[in-house]
Every structure is written in structure tokens, then in C-alpha cells.
Design a protein that fits this description.
Length: 90
């Protein structure tokens, strides 16, 4: 989470091998944060992003909802890259 004055940004990054995928922490269905109360974003299997509020499931690679009340919608991407082994905002 980042704050600049009154502006607040919440995002998260999922790493799969060498690839990283960043998303804004907002469910497209209701605008609520995706993570559960302990900050978990993925299913137990670690294969999909889970909206704890509504149970929607999203593919890690492109953020498209595969099930739930926003099926077919997409998470808002957050541009991130890996530089010298560190994840940074692109």
C-alpha cells in the first residue's frame, strides 16, 4: 500500500517462477479489496487469485475472472518488472 498525501494505492504482486504479475487490490464486482483479513490473495492451491468477499476467481497471468459474480471481468493490471532480482513498479 502506498500513500501520497490523501491518495492511497493498494496493489499486490504474484510471482510465478521468473514472471511477476501486478494488480490493483480492487474486486471489479464491488470495489472491495480482494485479500482476506490476513492478507492472502491466492487460493490454497496457489493457482488462482481469490476475492475473499465474493469468492470470484481470477487467472494469475491475465487477471480475468473465471468464476463468481464478475466472471469475464478483469482485474486492473499494475505494471511491475523485476530488476536485479527486485520487483519494482514499471
Amino acid at each position: 500500500m502506498f500513500r501520497e498525501g490523501e491518495r492511497l494505492f493498494a496493489g499486490f504482486v504474484v510471482r510465478r517462477g521468473e514472471a511477476v504479475f501486478g494488480y490493483v487490490d480492487v474486486c471489479p464486482h464491488a470495489g472491495s479489496p480482494l485479500a482476506n483479513p490476513v492478507g492472502r490473495f491466492l487460493t490454497r492451491e496457489g493457482d488462482l487469485i481469490l476475492c475473499a468477499a465474493h469468492g470470484a476467481l481470477f487467472r494469475i497471468e491475465d487477471g480475468v475472472a473465471t468464476s463468481g459474480p464478475c466472471a469475464g471481468d478483469r482485474l486492473e493490471a499494475w505494471d511491475v518488472v523485476v530488476r536485479d532480482g527486485v520487483v519494482v513498479t514499471a
